[in-house]
Each structure stands twice: as C-alpha cells, then as structure tokens.
Specification:
The structure is a homohexamer. Chain A is α+β, with helices and mostly antiparallel strands. Chain A has a single domain (about 5-55), classed as 2-Layer Sandwich (Macrophage Migration Inhibitory Factor), CATH 3.30.429. Helix content of chain A is about 30%, strand content about 30%. Chain A has one helix at about 15-30, and strands spanning about 5-10, 40-45, 50-55, 55. The termini of chain A are far apart. The interface between A and F is medium-sized, with 22 and 22 residues.
Amino acid sequence: MPTYHVEMMEGRTVEQKKKLVEEITRVSVEILGGSPESVNILITDIKRENWATGGTLWTERS
Amino acid sequence: MPTYHVEMMEGRTVEQKKKLVEEITRVSVEILGGSPESVNILITDIKRENWATGGTLWTERS
Amino acid sequence: MPTYHVEMMEGRTVEQKKKLVEEITRVSVEILGGSPESVNILITDIKRENWATGGTLWTERS
Amino acid sequence: MPTYHVEMMEGRTVEQKKKLVEEITRVSVEILGGSPESVNILITDIKRENWATGGTLWTERS
Amino acid sequence: MPTYHVEMMEGRTVEQKKKLVEEITRVSVEILGGSPESVNILITDIKRENWATGGTLWTERS
Amino acid sequence: MPTYHVEMMEGRTVEQKKKLVEEITRVSVEILGGSPESVNILITDIKRENWATGGTLWTERS
C-alpha cells in the first residue's frame, strides 16, 4: 500500500528510473512488508527554473 | 474549501476532465457542504515512464 | 490507477468520508474507466490553524 | 528545513519566479529561523485545463 | 489562485504561523498579482521521526 | 536534491522508519548520484479511516 512520490531534477534517464523504482520497491517490501504489487511510485521531473534552494533558482546556481 | 489533487495516467481528453471535475465538485458539495466555488481540483497527468507499480514502470508493463 | 488526495478542514465524520470515497470512486470509474480496486483516495484532515486564505488562518476567521 | 510547494497557473515569467523564491526564502528565515540554504521551494506550473474551481476547468472560465 | 503547501518541523507557534501566512500572501500578491483571497496556504507540521536527511531521522540527529 | 514523500498506513515502528530512510537514501545516491545529505525523505502516516481503495475506507475492509 505504500505510495512514494519522488521529486527530482529533470534529466535522469529511463534506465535510472527503472533501476530506482525496482530498488525502492524491493526495500519497501523487505522493511514494511506487503506485496510488490501494492507499492506505487510516482516520479516528478522538476525543471531547474522551478526548484530553488537558498532563495535562488537552480538555473541561477552554477 | 476542500482541495482535490488527482493523479492520473496521461492521455485523458479534456472532455473527460470537464466531466470529472463537474461530478467531483457536485458530490463534494452534496456530502461535505460548502459552495461549489470553494472546491478546487488540480489534475496531474503522469507520464507512463514516471509511474511504477510492482517495481516496474508502466512503459514496461503490457 | 487514479489516485486522489483530498485536503479538507478537520471535523468531517467517518460517515461523510465513507460516502465521499464511495461516490468519488464511482464517478472516477464511470468517466475514466478502470476498475474500482485501482482507485486510491487519501484524505488529509487539516487543522484550522494550518489553513490560511487571504493571509489569515482559519482560526482567526469568524 | 522548511519545504514549500507552490502551485500556480502556468504563464509566470522566470523573473517573477526568481523574485518569488527570493522573497519567500527571506520571510521564511525571518519568521521561522534556520539558514536560507535549508529552505527549498518547488514550483508547479498548472495548465488551465488541469485546474478547476466551482466545477469548471479554467479553460472554460472567461 | 496560487496554492502554497508548507512542510515544516513541528513546534512552531501559532504566532509564527499567523505571521508567515500573512507575509507569504503579501509577497505572492505583490509578485504574481491576483487578490489576497485567492491565495491558499496549507501548513503540514512534520514530526521529527517522520523527516530524514542524509539517511537519518531527525530524532537521531543532534 | 531528490525529495521523497512516503505515504503509508499508520502503525509502522520507528525502527522500520529508520531502516527505510537509510535504505532509500542509499539506493537513491547509488542510482541518481549526489550526496546523502542532499536526500530528504518525509513520511506521512495515514489513518485507516483516511485511505480508501475500491471505494471503501480501510477501516471497513477486513
């Protein structure tokens, strides 16, 4: 039943996403129990102009 | 005042979205009270490469 | 597959929640398709001191 | 440590976003304490066909 | 119309929250336009056992 | 930089949460890169009366 939302900077490959959801599902089932089919993971790709740290958009950070 | 966030796989038509927000607003007002104008609904279209169930992205599921 | 997050002011009864999730699931399946079992709804009860409109917390609004 | 998610209708300029994250970070540090670097802000641009108020999508509202 | 979600560690006073929502609403209207009444802010108080940075829950960090 | 939100049914122990955030941070850094300190994880414990699947609250499901 657990549902994961992952917010990450855009630019990751589908290969990275495939590996990530496989691994998160595995550790989730191992630690929290339940079946793999009950684990949902939703990824949000964030554009650099939409994420700020320290008051500065990541398009402005070097 | 209630605020609804709907995450759905991309590909639904504007007609489906129009009907959905109309119906959700109606049942919300009926059951929770308040005015229709106080109901906000935000839809997020999720790409198949960004949603995983059972450890597998929906681009990989048949 | 659609997932609904509902944010509402705290104080609604379990009866209201039961009716709301039943109706939202029904209209979701009718309009978007899919099976009822694929619809997940998560409710968040918000305390009045944690919701502001117009710059004022709802504990301060009459 | 505070994390802000801002949902706004699409169409705001990068200049507006720059100013907004600068100001929110400033007031956050002033009022809640902590360092600016600990403040994260994530913006979501919502398409008008994905936001409804009063049961009507904003593409339909004049 | 903008909607803000603020996640912060629990323990802030109502006075801090009052001031924060007042200021965020003010800068939002100044920079993005719209009326104050169209700005909604929802605060989530996170327990220290529910927030981790660097792989460690904040209950474990000194 | 990735931020994870985990929604799970209430009742998990702090030991499970400790292990979960440790493992998610580890696989995140392995697959996406970045430093462990840049990974934030926020857990939301959902009450059974606030989660529905198939139109039925989990308090009603056996």
